[in-house]
Amino acid sequence: MRSVWAIYPPKKSEKSFGKHPTQKPVELLRRIILASTKPNAIILDPFTGSSTAGIASTILGKRKFIGIDTEKDFLDVSIKRFKEINKNYGKK
User: Looking at the 3D structure of the chain, how many domains does it have?
Assistant: First the structure.
């Protein structure tokens, strides 16, 4: 992994269930998780928003995710994103 990352803003598909004002690209969170955790780690995001960290950890597999947020609208977006990603990655 290089020390300078060139990562584009979130793709339209990442915002298909709704937008969060500070949403990060999945690729950024994927790299952060790979650089800072080992398999079977627990990822805690106490300000999860639309759960991009959780989506990245689901894509990587072998990591558990706990997300917390006070905004129901963003949690609803998170639930929709997880349902979609779990369909694509064969999880229930």
Answer: 1
Q: What tokens appear for 77 in the block?
A: 């977006």
**Model pLDDT for residues 10-40, shown as the tens digit of each residue:** 988 888 888 889 899 999 999 999 999 999 9
Domain that holds residue 58: 24-88
pLDDT digits (tens, 9 = 90+) for 46-69: 999 999 999 999 999 999 999 999
Asked, for residue 28, whether it belongs to a domain, the answer is yes
C-alpha 70: how far from its chain's center?
17
Structure tokens at 83: 């349902």
Instruction: Give the domain CATH number at 71.
Output: 3.40.50.150
pTM confidence score: 0.86
Q: Is residue 64 part of a domain?
A: yes
> Which residues does residue 48 pair with via DSSP β-bridges, in sequence order?
none
Of 78, 74, 36, 35, the residue nearest 58 (C-alpha)? 78
